[in-house]
Amino acid sequence: MTLELSGLSTAYAGFDFGPVDLAVDDEVLAVLGPSGSGKTTLLSLIAGLTTPESGSIRLGRRELVGRPLDDRGVGMVFQEGALFPHMTARENVAYAADTDEVVEELAALLELDGVLDRRPPALSGGEGQRVALARTLAADPEVLLLDEPLSSLDAPTRRRLRTELHDLFDSLSIPVLYVTHDQRTATALGDRLAIVRDGSVEQIGPPVAVLDRPASRFVARFTGTENRFDATVVDRSEDGAWLRCGGLHVRTAVSTVPDTGTVCIHPSRVEVGANTTDDATTATGTVSRWLNEGTAYRLEIAVDTVTLTATVRPPTFERLEVAVGDELRVAIPPDAVHVIPEAE
Amino acid sequence: MATETDETRAVSSTPGADWLSVSLALGGVLLLYYLGPLVSLLLSVSPGTVLGRLAQPGVVDAAITSLLSASISTVLATVFGVPLAYWLARTEGALATALLAIVVLPLVVPPTVGGIVLLSVFGPGSAIGDAAIAVGIPLSGSLAGVVLAQTFVASPFVVVTAKAAFEGVDERLEHASRSLGKSRLTTAHRVTLPLAGPGILAGVTLAFARAIGEFGATTMVSYFPRTLPVEIWTSFRAVGLDSAYPVAILLLVIAGGALLVLNTVASNPWR
After folding, report:
1. Are A70 and B180 inside 8 Å of each other by CB?
2. Cβ atoms of A30 and A183 closer than 8 Å
3. DSSP E strands: which ranges in B3-132?
4. B179 shares contact with chain A (CB less than 8 Å)
5. What is the CATH number of domain B49-262?
6. Which chain A residues are closer than 8 Å to B191 by Cβ?
7. Is the pLDDT of residue B9 over 80?
8. Can you give the residue ranges of every domain in chain B?
């Protein structure tokens, strides 16, 4: 079934939300945005906790606006779970389930066997969220909303639960809206990504498309594209354009770019010390700083007047024996260069 | 007890000046002031005297009047007060603040003034009072009058305490219940009331204790039928302090029962 929002808007506590138009099929839409951007308001509107000023929310052929919370078929997993503290985990799930079989099935699916007889205060963060998810699924919702369910968990638990959620969502085939401010969770779980800012959807699309081709400076900044430079087109041909960003020259893979704008290059796409291809724009720079971020090294390389940020995997970093002050060759593949028609 | 003392010593920063001990010593004076006279009262009369006095028809009647009227007042306070408490707990803004001030009014108005206010509305000569007399239910000088006076004075305890209890129930729990397809009624029955229950019971207990001890407004509105506090006053005026002691002890026993409820079932076990 399709969940379709059209012209949905509300004003809440001095905050204007919308109008938002959005269609979610049987897929996972990860809603990513900074705090206060309206992510939770979006969920509240769909769940019926907030009344819209205008617009409609249709689920299949049903209009949800005006329907009470308990008659929407919308399941919501709240931040921190919102489990009933006076009930055991089993009673929490059974509260929403029609039969004991449903409870047993969900307990097996979400691996709750050891914790069913505990009360919420005795559950770990991860266990609590599993129970909350089981409780929501027990009501057999037609739409599933999740409000940052992993945000309060420690990193290993979050990683494990993220993997499990991925598999679970695959098997659900209902519209799922997953709100988070964590980009990794959003890209890991979302079939599509919606970037929300100031109560509006700024960009929506497959994660790769949003990360590689941000529609605005805000999206670029929020999704971690640290390399953003004011640029001017100096030359064009059929299969690309040349742009100058201060002392750095880059080439794009497409020629249809604005004359001036912001060049965006994700740090992971900057090739350091690699065998440069013919297509790549290459430059020489000086390492001004490096940082070990665990799974990758983050390098700042001064190329003429601009500072280019690159992330490299540890083996590459060790092979290159990088030190501050070293000269390095960098390559920027044309397909990694994206231009936004806004100045930085 | 020993652990607590160790901890308090550990947190006191200035050597030689244990401020928590000083605080307790000062407060101890107050505690002695509460307990001393009560113990002295209990020791001053023999159990035989108490039982003998309590068996007198006047005292028995007063006890029945008190228990009956306080029970009815408490039920009224609960039926009307708990929904108001819920509304106040879930509503913000100037209106809620203003309404809460009205709820607190009977707590700060002297009971005798409350009695005057009630008489002016429900007493003989008032429209409502005369209409009630005409249908045979006088609202002053009757059990109904006692109930009116007690409800006026005691019901704020239910509202204020239940409001705090409802505020202790996370609204998201109610939202979660509703989004699981449960009606408002089911949500109230299975989520809100079980969680707020101990707090509401505390309010009900306080209201009952206040109602059974009510004197000022009651004497103004309904001197008859006599409640236990009025009986104490009458005995004291007619015979003297010794005659009032046994009834006072009875009221103390009831107060002790209320205290017991407050410290057992009426505390919230999930906090």
Report:
1. yes
2. no
3. none
4. yes
5. 1.10.3720.10
6. 84
7. no
8. 49-262
